[in-house]
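thread: overnight batch results

M.L. [08:02]
morning all. the overnight job finished for the chain we discussed friday. pasting input first so we're all looking at the same thing
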Amino acid sequence: MIAAWPVVIRDRIVHAFKPGGSPASEAPFRTLRRHEWVSQGVRVTLFADRGLAGQMTFFSSLNVVAARLARRGNAPAAARVARAAADLEAGPEFAVLRSLLSKLPDREAEQVIGGLFPEDGPAALAEALRAVASRTEQMRANDILLSSPAEVVFAGRIAEVTNGFVLLVQVKETARATATMVPLWMAGAARRDQVGDFLVLVADKLDDASAVVEAVPAIDIDDTPEAHGFSPFGRSDARTRSITADDVRLLAGEPQSLRILVPVTIDG
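M.L. [08:03]
and the structure it wrote out:
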């Protein structure tokens, strides 16, 4: 299952509340705080080569939903979702993630919160992120407020990259795969612009005639080896436009020389 990146920085929350304003603005965030439309977040101490590098606060991605609800005027629902985010942040999954982030260099920790996993990152960190994402999706499934009809989500894997666009394909093994083109600059801003990357598009309704489309980094919650790999000859298989995680790992390896054995007849 592909899910949106489960943690966010404050700017993402402010952008959801005030799409046209500056995400670094203090006033909108203070409004969210004052009305309890956002959780307290999780603070982590960061270190650099020379010692203490400061602190960083990150939040459950449910706060983005709460901010959108507050923007639409549904204050009780916004407060309720913010409380759900706070419950998540107080849980064991966030405690493990916080501990692992504190062991990373300050810049890497910030990149992880932004959706970029370090190439040599520890396996435990990847598992912690998947655990937080899985718990987040469980809460979404159990609460109708977290599946708002005003938000349309398209989650998939990048199957092709061109000069100006990426082809984002929903991961489906049985049904016909649905695909959409995403501007390369938008995918790049979400740090998902390579074949095999996971990306989520969220269409956030503003009114009956307009919406904001946001590209959000995503994570594969399951990330287990697939029972059936990709075959370039199975054109009726929807997976021909959506390669698996195993395929990506295989194609990323070094190519081997092709060996052709030719029978030779030697006359005696």
